Amino acid sequence: MSLQLLKGKKGIIFGALDESSIAWKVAEKAFEHGAEFILTNAPVALRMGEINKLAEKCNTEVVPADATSMEDLKNLFEIATAKYGKLDFVLHSIGMSINVRKKQEYTDLNHEWMLKTMDISAISFHRVMQTAYKMDALKDGASVLALTYIAAQRTFPGYGEMAEAKAMLESFARSFGYHYGKNKKVRVNTISQSPTATTAGSGVNGFDVFFNYADKLSPLGNASADSCADYCVVMFSDLTRMVTMQNLFHDGGYSSIGLTEAFIDEMENRNK
User: Fold this and answer.
1) Domain range spanning residue 158?
2) CB atoms within 10 A of CB 116
3) How far apart are CA 204 and CA 194, in angstroms?
4) Is residue 179 situated within a structural domain?
5) Exposed/middle/buried for 113, CB within 10 Å: 0-12, 13-18, 19+?
6) 1 within a domain of the structure (yes/no)
7) How confident is the model over 17-29, as pLDDT tens digits?
8) Does a structural domain hold residue 265?
């Protein structure tokens, strides 16, 4: 890699589970671009994944942390800042819904599970930023990113309560982004990614339909996990130092499309 956009930058990457996860791809790309970082995930997720292999590849360490635990997050940032000093970037790539996993109908959700979904998938983002903010753990100009999905704005029945979680996540980026920008010059954004065949994404009911529908409508097709990782690298870099409080669509143009000729032709052919 001749151009290293993140040379000398330090950070934390939440959520790398296995080779199909976007956070895994981001770690690989960030490392290629010269970054150093700590990898982290919840202890239960670490048992499911192969993150140690990624850590070895990226010459780093894994620090277990439950993102719903303020104590775990404080410990994580203490370890990271002791190792690197103030940080340049943080990636939040965390999401889980028991209701979705158990295929509960949206009109018959278990609300205790819903609260867990919100805590893991959205409130954890606020927890991460609040911890870093109070500890003054990020440099001026640092970049905080979270991954989201267009179901925060549009209705996708199979996505269930995760739609509300993503809407909350995006709101935290705007609200905390204001305070972080004004008081500490840190930028906060979300990236709304195409349907992506990750371990978590593939567990959504009707995922193949989501994926194929978006791919057919998007002028550029669905954005891959690799291309999302490229976008994250740019957002961590100094090239985007004036971008904050934005929800950035990375979806091949899908978010701006109503109908396409190809889709109309397909529907007409089905009706013949």
Assistant:
1) 10-270
2) 16
3) 14
4) yes
5) middle
6) no
7) 999 999 999 999 9
8) yes
Q: Residue 216, class by beta-carbon neighbours within 10 Å (0-12 exposed, 13-18 middle, 19+ buried)? A: middle
What is the number of domains present in the chain?
Answer: 1
Using one digit for the tens of pLDDT, what is the confidence trace for 164-208? 999 999 999 999 999 999 999 999 999 999 988 776 655 566 677
pLDDT at 213: 82
**Token pair recorded at residue 214:** 């978006």
- CA-nearest of 136, 162, 160 to 149 is 162
Q: CB-based contacts of 159: which residues, under 8 Å, 6+ apart?
A: 100, 149, 151, 204, 210
Residue with tokens 């100009």, as numbered in its chain: 141
The residue assigned the tokens 């929800």 is: 247
Rounded Cα–Cα distance for residues 40 and 211 (Å): 28
Least confident of 4-8, 116-120, 181-185, 209-213: 209-213
Q: Where are the beta strands (DSSP E) in the chain?
A: 10-14, 36-40, 87-92, 138-148, 187-193, 247-250
| CB neighbourhood size of 127 (10 A) | 20
| 167 vs 189: CA distance, rounded Å | 13
Give the containing element (helix H, strand E) for 219: none
Tokens of 113: 């599970």
CATH code of the domain covering residue 138: 3.40.50.720
Read off the pLDDT of residues 106-159 as tens digits, 9 standing for 90 and up. 999 999 999 999 999 999 999 999 999 999 999 999 999 999 999 999 998 889
Q: Half-sphere exposure of residue 121, counting CA atoms within 13 Å on the CB side?
A: 26
Residue 107 resides in a domain: yes
Q: What is the pLDDT of residue 72?
A: 98
